[in-house]
Amino acid sequence: MKGYSGKILHVDLSRGSFQVEQPPESFYRQYVGGACLGNYYVFKGLKAGADPLGPENVLVFAISAVVGAPISGNARHAVSAKSPLTGTIGSSEGGGFWGPELRFAGFDAIVLTGKSPKPVYLWIHDGEFQLKDASHLWGKVTGEVQDAIRQELGDERIRVAQIGPAGEKGVLYANITNELKHFNGRCGFGAVMGSKNLRAIAVRGKMKPEYADPDTIKELARKGAAKVAPDGFYKDFKRLGTTMNVSWNTAIGGLPTRNWTMGIFPEKEKVTEFVYADQWMDGTGTCWACAQACKRDVKAGITSPWPVEARYGGPEYETMGMMGTNCLVSDWNAIIKANEWASKYAVDTIALGGVIGFVMECYEKGILTAKDLGGVKASFGSGEALVALSEMAVKREGFGDKMALGTARLAKLLGPQAERFAVTVKGKEFPAHMPTAKGSMGLIYAVNPFGPDHVSTTHDGDIAAGPNEVNKGVGIYETVPDQWELDFAKTKMTAYSQRYVSAIDSWSVCQFTFHAWSICSLEDLVTVINAATGWQYTLAEFMLLGERRINLMRAFNAREGFSSKEDVLPPRLFEDPLQGEGPRKGAVVDKANFLKQRENYYRLNGWDPVTGNPTEVKLRELGLDWAWEAMQKK
Amino acid sequence: MKGYSGKILHVDLSRGSFQVEQPPESFYRQYVGGACLGNYYVFKGLKAGADPLGPENVLVFAISAVVGAPISGNARHAVSAKSPLTGTIGSSEGGGFWGPELRFAGFDAIVLTGKSPKPVYLWIHDGEFQLKDASHLWGKVTGEVQDAIRQELGDERIRVAQIGPAGEKGVLYANITNELKHFNGRCGFGAVMGSKNLRAIAVRGKMKPEYADPDTIKELARKGAAKVAPDGFYKDFKRLGTTMNVSWNTAIGGLPTRNWTMGIFPEKEKVTEFVYADQWMDGTGTCWACAQACKRDVKAGITSPWPVEARYGGPEYETMGMMGTNCLVSDWNAIIKANEWASKYAVDTIALGGVIGFVMECYEKGILTAKDLGGVKASFGSGEALVALSEMAVKREGFGDKMALGTARLAKLLGPQAERFAVTVKGKEFPAHMPTAKGSMGLIYAVNPFGPDHVSTTHDGDIAAGPNEVNKGVGIYETVPDQWELDFAKTKMTAYSQRYVSAIDSWSVCQFTFHAWSICSLEDLVTVINAATGWQYTLAEFMLLGERRINLMRAFNAREGFSSKEDVLPPRLFEDPLQGEGPRKGAVVDKANFLKQRENYYRLNGWDPVTGNPTEVKLRELGLDWAWEAMQKK
């Protein structure tokens, strides 16, 4: 086979009808797959001002031509829709086993519109598809639903992407999970899926993908495994995974602590990746066909005081940060239990941890009392409160009904005093990286089209492993100076890496495998792409893909009325000097400098330097003439 | 060897002193070599408003890390300086044998400043260098000088880059030649070299370059030759070379005829590449280590009425167009003789042909008489006039003294009536491609930093061989619609291809070998680069190199006072409908559309859309902070 074309399944849930689209290869060359393809259908399918939780929202699951190739990192999928949390267009990436299985089941994307009159799940297998009743599954936790679907369809190897009870109930940061411990975590797409009465998408198939150059794919599969040999960085990464960030962020004083008021956790010896790995974990989990296997699995048999079901996986770094240090909690059982609540009911732990940290500050400041919280004494550091508030929120019970709205909306209900310390942009919580210590994060949290995201650019220190003094600043990588504040080099690094990361997410591969600093470079990814598709793909086209996706999203958002006025950090970052210890003690983000660099970022992207909106020429350059026309109709 | 670093020889001709610089590898990674490296030293070395013919001008000869690799196309060198013709910064590329020999002699660039008190030539061999007296060579034609230098240095394999008597006398379009028939043709750098009393640079060496991956270089050398197997397009190209443009431009009605008033030559069966190849040529010439061997060699023994020395080579396409059809001349002996005058005295045939076509129109309109022209009856179509006017101009005798100034300055001397039909931009003649038929040429002629140039972008139609419907518009290549006028797609194609062509010229390789549509792709070139340097170079970095060079030049020009006001086509293109036959009969370039697309071109480059000058953010993005600072000091 030479070239690439796939099949896209369109499902109108209101009517229960299907349509199979086979776009021309040129469509794939332009929008590729994953996040970019998903964003395309969302933009094309929605009118300005559409309700994200209305039947009109378009929900897309998508992979790319390389997903399912038996090479480490080629196992992800993107979910896209208009986000109920941010009101913007967005995507959320997930790993696990579901993406490759969708490929083997015969499709590379599913575009869902409408609302089913009753709870259903979608069953796709070997090119066949049907909607099945899910009334009996509604309200059940994710483990029960996965078991039930596999049992009723009679195949234990069926892969189930599903929402949990939180998605059914419209928790605005509800997510989508597969294998119970892999998540399309952010943007609240679980709530979108719930609003459509769609509980799950089960996939299974034996349709093996054909590749332009199968020999090279085989060779890369072999080489890939060899590259992940257990030595050096990847020995540590295999053992410690994402949680290595605890040490890294502690070193730079950027570990969010006590609702973003400190950059170092006071009891720092208690909450480390080493304590976790040594005392609470039992081996590591993996995504499909990956030799890295970086996932955190907690050991079985944790029972006291909170029993934990190990099948729901263990906290990753973001959860440790947001549910642990940012809530000042060092009780591992509590963090792991809160993580289990989030997994079982399917909500984003970053958002939930952010809300709880915020509620704790409200409690300590007397804005909320134990009475408001159903008796919970929500002091910072209370593992008990962490677990109790998690359960309330995911079940949307009691005060949890309000927590389900996310920090920004909850803060608005509580008034200006509370709003003053709500740490969100575009209604979405920050991931666990302190902008005061990582300038690139501060910028991307503000300007990213779907709100604060830690994987929409590279991090200040990450790139050091990529370029060196020889190629500093001449290519798409940028070495940044050893300083905290944003400068031009960091801003350029943010803009350029946002492009390649957007392209990585459009090819639906793993950033821990393919990245400027990763075991496989972006050039290696281009090799995989060419072996799979037979295209004459280059890193130059890859970069334009990333730019295309970002511009498509910004154009959508501009039509919704978004502009630079929403690209701002909350007051806490600019005004509240960091407390506690660490190299950033006493620091704030310099607002004037931030605004200057934000303008530079807009200019680097060829956008209007005042509004931050894409220009006609930039959109036309990227083949998005239609997006420019759409923008004019707001 | 891993990585790359070279040696740059700095020569102060006023003092007769030398300095050898070994820049860090990071310098090469940013400015690479060839045209970009040359432009760098010119910009850094000159103050605003410097006299191009004064001792302060900086004249740079440069190659790159890949020149001298035994692979077809890796044999060129760039000459850079401030141009006395345009007043801008610029480069002129040449092939032949000199570039690789400079590498074997131990250097990758020569930076010349000052003015020698007496005529000299520079002799570089195996890492040694000296200035040698050239008083006895002054005034001699190029063949005599080459012979004399080889004889006095006692080595027949010495490669000599030299000016001719035209350069000595400051003909503003004098050029630099090596092997008597390879030229750094444009921008008048022969006059710059003459103004420095430097007649020649002779090089010879046996220092073999080391490569990061010598096995790959060897394999590419083998493959490269295999790729140029004598079939398909390259069978024709080997036989017909650049002169294939005669048929192509005739087909689209874009062959400049009768001083740009017609797009088809009336006696078209007489001036074709086939007549030339069959009746006037004797095999083809080549550059160093090239399997394509596309150069035009005329046969020995042409004697009547004008005897021709075959060693000076034969007319390429541009000469056929500008000295042949644009002067309405179909007499092959005359065209070949005029070409020999240009070679022997070393002037650019594009400019000289342009001046003669212009003089012929002045003669026909009565602005100039035979008396003014020393008795020459300069009617369009007169082979006799072509030969006589060529001789006068290259020798700067009689009216030739004024012709030596180029069309624009001559027109100014003759007054507004003559200026109305002078076809130049920034004081420089057009190459033989009619903007009325190739929209991309019209745009690049206007906006190119060193004036009209046919190899500073790809041509409408060329690119068809590169992308197809699948990858149309998504990468750096662009398929353009089948229409004459500039549209957005053509403008984007112009902007993008100007970047990759600028990068090709900075790597000093041949566009007939490496190009989007050529036998070797740009991706193949990246492979050569990585094998030579061991860098992890990508096409993305390659494109940024091209952008860096263009921005560097535009910044230099902005400091000189250039802006969009100089980026205009002459009135003839906008106002005089094409006469004669052909598909563009009656057509003009649409001025309003041209101006609109020029603005789009500026915007695509991230420049000020009104002035066309680079912005601070764009320059800083490309690592040219210093150029921005320099721009502020104008």
Element layout with pairings:
2 copies of one chain form a homodimer.
Chain A: E1 8-12, E2 17-21, H1 25-31, H2 34-45, E3 59-62, E4 77-82, E5 89-94, H3 98-104, E6 109-113, E7 120-125, E8 128-133, H4 142-153, E9 159-162, H5 165-168, E10 176-178, E11 182-184, H6 189-195, E12 198-204, H7 214-227, H8 233-240, H9 245-251, H10 273-280, E13 281-285, E14 295-298, H11 317-324, H12 332-345, H13 349-364, H14 383-395, H15 400-403, H16 407-414, H17 416-419, E15 424-425, E16 428-429, H18 439-447, H19 488-506, H20 522-533, H21 539-559, H22 571-575, H23 591-604, H24 616-621, H25 625-631
Parallel strand pairs in A: 1-6, 7-12
Antiparallel strand pairs in A: 1-2, 3-4, 3-6, 4-5, 7-8, 9-10, 9-12, 10-11, 13-14, 15-16
Helix pairs in contact in A: 2-19, 2-21, 11-12, 11-13, 12-14, 18-19, 19-21, 19-23, 21-25
User: What fraction of the residues of chain A are assigned to beta strands by DSSP?
Assistant: 5-15%
User: What oligomeric state do the depicted chains represent?
Assistant: homodimer
Average pLDDT level of chain A:
95
User: Which chain pair shows the most residues in contact?
Assistant: A-B, 40 and 39 residues
Total tally of structural domains of chain A: 3
Parts with pLDDT < 50 across at least 5 consecutive residues of chain A:
none
- CATH architecture annotation name of the largest domain in chain A: 4-Layer Sandwich
Counted beta strands of chain A: 16
CATH H-level superfamily of the largest domain in chain A: Aldehyde ferredoxin oxidoreductase, N-terminal domain
How many helices of chain A does DSSP assign?
A: 25
How many angstroms does the end-to-end distance of chain A come to? 43 Å
Give the strand order of the largest sheet of chain A, numbering strands 1, 2, ... along the chain.
2-1-6-3-4-5
Q: Rounded to an integer, what's the Rg of chain A over CA atoms?
A: 23 Å
The helix fraction of chain A, in percent, is 25-40%
CATH domain class of the largest domain in chain A: Alpha Beta
CATH fold title of the largest domain in chain A: Aldehyde Ferredoxin Oxidoreductase,  A, domain 1
How would you classify the helix and strand content of chain A by structural class? alpha+beta
